Amino acid sequence: MAYKMHLLVCGGTGCQASESAALVENLKKELEEQQLDSFAQVVMTGCFGFCEKGPIVKIIPDNTFYTQVSPENAGVIVSEHVAKGRRVDYLLYKNPEDNTPIAESKNMNFYKKQIRIALRNCGIINPENIEEYIARDGYLALGKVFQELGAENTIQVLKDAGLRGRGGAGFPTAIKWELTRKNEADQKYVVCNADEGDPGAFMDRSILEGDPHAVIEAMAINGYCVGATKGLIYIRAEYPLAIQRLKIALNQARNYGLLGNDILGSGFDFDIELRYGAGAFVCGEETALIHSMEGFRGEPTLKPPYPAQSGYLNKPTNVNNVETLANVPVIINKGPEWFNQIGTEKSKGTKVFALAGKVNNVGLIEVPMGITLREVIFEIGGGIKNNKKFKAVQTGGPSGGCLTEKDLDISIDYENLIAAGSMMGSGGMIVMDEDDCMVDVAKYFLDFTVEESCGKCAPCRIGNKRLYELLDKITKGKGTKQDLEILQNLGGVIKDTSLCGLGQSSPNPVLSTMRNFEDEYHAHVHDHKCPSGVCKSLMTYEIIPDNCVGCTACVRVCPVGAITGNKKEVHLISAELCIKCGACMERCKFDAITVN
Amino acid sequence: MTQDQVKVELKESDVQKIKTICAEFDNNGGELINVLHKTQNTFGYLPAEVQEVVAQGLNVSVAKVYGVVTFYSYFTMIPKGEHPISLCTGTACYVRGADKVLDELKKVLEIEVGETTADGKFSINCLRCVGACGLAPVVMVGDKTYGRVAPEMIKGILEEYQ
Ligand SMILES: Cc1cc2nc3c(=O)[nH]c(=O)nc-3n(C[C@H](O)[C@H](O)[C@H](O)COP(=O)(O)O)c2cc1C
Ligand code: SF4
């Protein structure tokens, strides 16, 4: 039965957290009650990306894009929009500049500059229905590889397209496939790296939740090209929704003969198994990932040998990231020329970023390589929240660096970001404003690294701990000039002497903030001040004599008795006793307490 | 509750359950992590006594099992609370004040991260990015997600589970 209208509801993790499942139920119920269920259909899709304004409902064919829809809004959407074709104005997105409603996503700044390749199906198809993937040219590329291209030409297509790994390092995908292909063995493996441990990133998860078949198809192509009959997806156990959708998709693909023996009559056998990660960031590193799949602690080992030579169970293994794979079927369908005209000279195509932090439009975005940070943050991201001032943007997660105002106009690609002192990483992009203390941010990332270091090599295990302690000392106002020098030196040593990418890049957040925010470090060390007012130990609470009426409210609320003063007299806070809990400031009705 | 305080006596039926899980994975030591996932799903946690049975079942040393359990943060040797609380400490949540929410949780429940309250009701756990950055900071109690959480909201949230 063909429906005349489709109500697409975002079923990504973010929107599910805002009750999109209840919304779907209500919409279905309303359609039934108003006897419109043969006219319109509710479809739960993957992430639309505009997480800030979720849950999102998009109506096809008229492309109306409702934002922040609650389960209670189901009735009006059905009775007005579905039944009478009238848009519900108050559920439309409002242009932040003039507050006028915008009905279609293509007219929103958030979407205008995006090009969706890896996310092409997210928010458009029902990820739990293989037919919808097939209807959008799904598994066409696989057929083309079998019938037209063959393995070597397929690799050539990827080479001409210039596809590079999206997992962080940017290694040319075709070259990796070629290496694995050339290594003879009785058994080879292809692995999809879905460990995504960067603490500010959810790109790979959204692809797997929104379009699992794209990854499955790409892995089958990958297997055919390198001569592997087995695929493994290493996915975080903390991603239950992605795991569930992958399981459904794998079963459907098997039932359709797209996995299993003699796929599409090509004589090629291929199947995929899931392997679960167990919450260790370092397992995203490919050698650690392989050891983890073998049942060991996820400790990296020296390369070479590369996985392409000796990987899982010592057999040649091709490891690719989720997003890298998601690009493969489209490139094969549309051709390398289509792909390589997008992007910059050395970085082709698009990159998905998880844009978060202090921007107005938090969400998942896919932009062409070469776009500037300014366009991303101020146009797509809609600028900084609460009209605060932009301070820094962190890319590359715990391995990356903080970029500042002066870097906003560089165009994003692998080389430019490294030249600017950060890196592409897997796609986390966290925006910070004037209220964020850069020393504290560096400390946050070091805390992460110390926790996640596997402990195999001393520079990373001990050195990062020392870096953390020094930063902690500085945020407590006890740092010295010498500490700053030690930070620099030790950071350099850790980078030079660590075994794997984690240690080799872990000092980056410190070194980049020291370079870009020298003043802030000096303020902490020399003046014992935190200019952003984040580091608690450096704050002093003081009473403004002119505002204080002597009501004794603060004296009574202070848990440590640090405030003295009689009724109708100006009170005084003892800096020694004060534990900086802020209770007095909360209590004071006369704005008589300030914090410096 | 801390790790040392957890002492369990396994019933014969529990030992059988673990052995069955090991057998499902062909008693293959290479499947250790999968076996641990399944065992933790069954028992909720992996105390030392359980690890011993797994080691026997897969014919690997107890030290190896312990090494793997303690390496991965997903595996726990302490039973989670009846309502496990997970706080996202990803970067996006951190810059939007997750640390203050965590302080408040620890203060109200009087436990540290990775511990369970004495009555077994709540436990606190930190996660790295749950993928709901639009709602930062995010707290999960069981399967329910709370977005844009401020320290002042903690008491109210906990009351829902009293
Ligand atoms: C500490 C560390 C963590 C990593 N985490 C991930 C990850 O979460 N996901 C990922 O795809 N690659 C990660 N990588 C990169 C992988 O080692 C590997 O380069 C990548 O999976 C290759 O796929 P690609 O060529 O498609 O990018 C990480 C590397 C290091 C050093
Ligand atoms: S650099 Fe760190 S994470 Fe990498 S192997 Fe050494 S200790 Fe382990």
How would you describe the overall organization of this protein?
The complex is a heterodimer of chains A (596) and B (162). With 596 residues, chain A is an alpha/beta fold. A 5-stranded mixed β-sheet of chain A has the order 12-11-15-13-14, with helices on both faces. In chain A, helix 9 crosses helix 12 (322-334). Chain B has 162 residues and is an alpha+beta fold. Chain B has 2 domains: 3-71; 83-159, Glutaredoxin, CATH 3.40.30.10. Chain B has 7 helices and 4 strands. Chain B has a 4-stranded mixed β-sheet with strand order 2-1-3-4, covered by helices on one side. Chain B is elongated. Chain B starts with 11 loop residues before the first helix and ends with a helix. The model of chain B has no long low-confidence stretch (mean pLDDT 90). The chains are: A alpha/beta (596), B alpha+beta (162). At the A-B interface, helix 1, strand 9, strand 11, strand 15 and helix 16 of A face helix 2, helix 4 and helix 5 of B. The structure holds flavin mononucleotide and iron/sulfur cluster.
Total E-strand runs of chain B: 4
Work out the helix count of chain A: 23
Mean pLDDT of chain B: 90
Sheet with most strands: strand arrangement of chain A: 12-11-15-13-14
Tell me the fraction of residues in β-strands of chain A, as a range: 5-15%
In terms of structural class, how would the helical and strand content of chain A be classed? Answer: alpha/beta
Indicate the low-confidence ranges of chain A by residue numbers.
Answer: none
Which percent range describes the beta-strand content of chain B? 5-15%
- The number of helices of chain B is 7
Spatial separation of the terminal alpha carbons of chain B: 20 Å
Q: Could you name the key traits of this structure?
A:
heterodimer, A: about 600 residues, alpha/beta, Rossmann fold, Ubiquitin-like (UB roll), 5 domains, 5-stranded mixed beta sheet, about 40% helix, about 15% strand, B: alpha+beta, 2 domains, 4-stranded mixed beta sheet, about 45% helix, binds flavin mononucleotide, binds iron/sulfur cluster
